[in-house]
Amino acid sequence: MKRLPITLIILLFALVTNCSSQLEGDKDDINSYFDLGGLLDQEIKKLTSQGATLEKLLQTNDEEEKITLSPDSAQWHEQLMLFYEADINKPGFIGEYFQEELPSISGISKVIYTSKSQRHPVQVMECFYENESMTKVRLLVKEINAIYSVTKELSLYFDENGLSSFDIKGEESMRLKKDLNYKIQGAIVRSL
User: Fold this and answer.
1) Which of 24, 42, 88, 100 is most deeply buried (CB count within 10 A of its CB)?
2) Are residues 69 and 117 in the same domain?
3) What is the per-residue pLDDT across 17-43, written as a single tens digit (0 to 9) for each?
4) Is 137:163 a contact under the CB 8 Å cutoff?
């Protein structure tokens, strides 16, 4: 009778340790591609702690608007939402992208992630490096169906301080509506 509880405890311990090691393996699989969301989270922490502001230029068809914001952490997240949405480092995308690393020439290198399928919105993600420091992330997003077509090019730019600017260029076509072309440029201003 005493052997049953000991055997049960050993069996439960083996099961728990096996499950936790499988979960750790799954975490490694999730980080199959460049972790854009993690990078953005780090940059938002820096921007918030530095009290950085955002100068934003919005252009739509023939209209233009310039605004300056002093975002908190949640507002920075909101301003960069399209980049978060374009993060390919998600469990559902494991094995869905080709990865190509171009060799370094004069200290400049590039890693390219290309979708294996047209059904994924993010078709291409390119990470540019200079002397192993990231300088740019470029994403090409396309969504096409019978009702609408959306194409976006998203770019993040980095300097020695981290995120320095971003831009978003897009075209939207929808049945029975006028086409929309837009461009958003954001410049980060850090206080000294």
Assistant:
1) 88
2) yes
3) 444 333 344 444 456 788 999 999 999
4) no
